[in-house]
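User: I'm writing a tutorial on reading structure tokens. Could you give me a worked example: one chain, its sequence, then its tokens, then a sentence or two explaining what the tokens reveal?
Assistant: Sure. Here is the example chain.
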Amino acid sequence: MARMSQTLPPAADRHFEDYPVGAVFDLGSFRLSETEMLAFARRYDPQLMHTDPGWAEQGPFHGLIASGWHTISALMPLIVHNFLPSGGLVSPGVDELRWLLPVRPDEILHAQGTVTEARRSRSRPDRGLVRSFVEVLNEAGEPVLTMRPMNFIRCRPESLAPRD
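And here are its predicted structure tokens:
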């Protein structure tokens, strides 16, 4: 079921306060061509289901599929450009990375992120921790990849001023 997407300010103007719990953000779409899939897999994930179309046709997925690492690599620019602030802070990591369905050549994939937690840091009050649930959906709307990234995001400077 599609949820109403919210809009973020331009990357240079994004701050912790722009990520309320429950907000859903459209991260954009991408596709991986067979040529791209083969090149990536041959270099970074040389398993036959990713590198040999003939073998893959006879294999468990009945055709070539993208490496999950390639799918994440293609997703990352969407997260950087359409979700994170520019000049961002470090991320403490990603939880629960799942590859749920195979990704086929030239399949159009769509990504969205939902804020699941947003809390201000007690030790570093100039930032907050935003936890999200990111889904990559295939053309049928089925999730092919899910993960729960965490990001430290700077607070708006005016929110740091002492209050009277």
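What the tokens reveal: The first strand starts at residue 24 and ends at 31. DSSP finds four helices and five strands in the chain.
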